[in-house]
């Protein structure tokens, strides 16, 4: 992949994570009736970062799950290579809870659609909200809207937006790559 242009540097990245964590605390206070579920794989990384910030604020453990949506995708049979599924781990009752689904980039809405379908296998949440680091709001195929957004990026369909993490990529940042 060619070198991307940084649209969120490490300093702003940290500020965005702090803001998103604060918004979640404001809306869910002590998280007694709320849980965070990261969509495998990149949504889990974002969720873990937010949970560490939230738990420091509320001094309480937050219910946290990991959701794999591989076989709920509407395109999983259309891929040339076999898909590799990740683990799903939800060890709490979803029924009646406020669930915050987390993914790093919301693009077409298909991943979120699959996540909601997968989540329903665990029960009927009271409410489902969506948090993303990047919302590519003008590229939707399905009517999906984020409730908590790090940044909005208006880019052509051919562009690629990537969230990078220090412990994986060497730096916390968001990059945009052009199609050419």
What can you see in these coordinates?
This protein has helices at residues 10-28, 42-58, 110-119, 166-169, and strands spanning 5-8, 34-39, 63-67, 98-106, 127-135, 148-152, 160-164, 173-177. It has a single domain, classed as Rossmann fold, CATH 3.40.50. With 180 residues, it is α/β, with parallel strands linked by helices. The chain has a 5-stranded parallel beta sheet, sandwiched between helices. The radius of gyration is 16 Å and the shape is globular. The protein starts with a strand and ends with a strand. Helix 1 (10-28) packs across helix 2 (42-58). Helix content is 28%, strand content 27%.
| CATH architectural label | 3-Layer(aba) Sandwich
Count of strand segments:
8
* Low-pLDDT ranges: none
Q: End-to-end span in angstroms? A: 10 Å
* Percent of residues in β-strands: 25-35%
Given helix and strand content, the structural type is alpha/beta
Helix content: 25-40%
- The rough form would be described as globular
Helix-strand string: EHEHEEHEEEHE
Mean pLDDT: 92
CATH class: Alpha Beta
Q: What is the third-level CATH name, the topology?
A: Rossmann fold
Strand order of the largest sheet: 3-2-4-5-6
Work out the radius of gyration.
16 Å
Quick one: biggest sheet? 5 strands, parallel
**Helix count, DSSP H or I runs of 4 or more residues:** 4
Can you tell me the number of structural domains?
A: 1
């Amino acid at each position: 992949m060619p070198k991307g242009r940084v649209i969120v540097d490490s300093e702003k990245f940290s500020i965005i994570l702090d803001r998103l964590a604060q918004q979640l605390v404001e809306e869910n206070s002590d998280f007694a009736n709320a849980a965070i579920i990261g969509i495998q794989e990149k949504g889990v990384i974002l969720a873990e970062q937010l949970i560490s910030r939230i738990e420091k604020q509320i001094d309480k453990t937050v219910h946290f799950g990991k959701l794999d949506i591989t076989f709920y995708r509407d395109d999983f049979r259309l891929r040339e290579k076999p898909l590799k599924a990740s683990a799903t781990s939800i060890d709490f009752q979803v029924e009646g809870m406020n669930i915050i689904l987390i993914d790093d980039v919301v693009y077409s809405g298909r991943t979120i659609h699959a996540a909601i379908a997968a989540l329903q296998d665990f029960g009927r949440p009271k409410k489902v909200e969506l948090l993303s680091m990047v919302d590519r709001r003008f590229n939707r195929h399905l009517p999906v809207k984020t409730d908590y957004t790090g940044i909005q990026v208006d880019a052509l369909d051919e562009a690629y937006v990537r969230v990078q993490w220090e412990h994986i990529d060497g730096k916390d940042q968001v990059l945009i790559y052009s199609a050419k």
